[in-house]
Amino acid sequence: MKLRRVLGCTILALCAAAGARAAKAATEPPVREVAITIDDLPAAAASPTRGDAKSIIDMTTKLLAILKQQNIPAVGFVNEQKVYKWGEVDERIRALSMWLDAGFELGNHTFSHPSLNQVGIQEFEDNVIQGESVLRLLLAQHKMKLRYFRHPYLDTGRDLRTKLDVEAFLTGRGYRIAPVTMDAWDWMFASVYSDAKARGDAAMEQQVVSTYLSYTETVFAFYEKFSKDLFGYEPKQILLLHGNQLEADHLNEVLDMLRKRGYRFITLENALSDQVYSLPDTYIGEEGTGWIEHWAITRGVTRKDYPTAPTAFFERYRALTPPPQ
User: What is the per-residue pLDDT across 287-319, written as a single tens digit (0 to 9) for each?
Assistant: First the structure.
């Protein structure tokens, strides 16, 4: 009888412990992983810093301080054309060097940010090569190699032949394409934010930040569920951000949001080790999109409920953006 009581108590204790673990798991966010990538260095177009080397250095200093303090690995993607402003070349190159000095990695985002969907293959490939000159020298100084490439606008080709030919070209030059699985259009919000900041409109500035963060959380939630529905689990995600003043001022809030959702921060190399990045991808289209959509469309899965940026802010962005010449 005594032994039976002991065994019964032990079983009850084990069941209680298992129940407690299950309850805890139900209330805690799942363990997730994400790589941070930052495009359009040394400074994104949707930022007043693009015209002032000192402001670029200041913005870069703020971004790097946040990443270093929080021990966040990141890869920055460079448009070398942004380096060549009369009288500022050395300082703009110094801004790129700061990323490498701080222990981060830089990748190629082409020289002048052309869309593969809008230019010919040869012109695009020439632009890729032109975008390597400074990058390769800076990386060599830090005993690093140029490893990653990201398509401007995420445009990977309007037809399959173009897509495959350019991918073969990039592979031949030693590149690994850096996909994107989560993108909250910070470039659009950044333009409106910078305008409000320049005009001293604190109310609009705060409204932009609040709306951006709310939309970002919506994007995270959508792609977490979509990827789980598509693959049966949440893969290692890759987040697209840009080198702009909005992120320099508010990247902390984005990183805090990710932590609260259960993410730990990993390198791009680690993220690309996930099996999903080896899946077939035959997506072609007029506009670039994230890779979860690529894989879904390749599998014949379509949906129309993608989160869309608030119309009012997009209209403000368009009003601030000069038409192409």
Answer: 889 999 999 999 999 888 999 999 999 999 999
308 in any annotated domain: yes
CB contact at 8 A, 184 and 306: no
Q: Is residue 18 part of a domain?
A: no
Cβ contacts of 262 within 8 Å, gap of 6 or more: 28, 29, 30, 31, 32
Each residue's pLDDT tens digit, 76-104: 999 999 999 999 999 999 999 999 999 99
Q: Report pTM.
A: 0.89
Q: Which domain holds residue 98?
A: 29-320
Taking the C-alpha atoms of residue 63 and residue 250, their distance in angstroms, rounded to an integer, is: 9
Instruction: List Cα–Cα distances, 94 to 41, 122, 224, 277, in angstroms.
Output: 12, 31, 37, 33
Asked if 181 and 208 touch (Cβ cutoff 8 Å), the reply is no
C-alpha 75: how far from chain center: 9
Q: Say if 8 falls within a structural domain.
A: no
The three-state secondary structure class of 183 is strand
- In a domain? residue 20: no
Residue entry with tokens 């190399």: 269
Nearest CA to 56 among 183, 73, 64, 161?
Answer: 64
Distances (CA, A) of 314 to 44, 161, 188: 17, 33, 7
In whole angstroms, how large is the CA radius of gyration of the chain? Answer: 22
Domain count, the chain: 1
User: Terminus-to-terminus CA distance in the chain, angstroms?
Assistant: 90
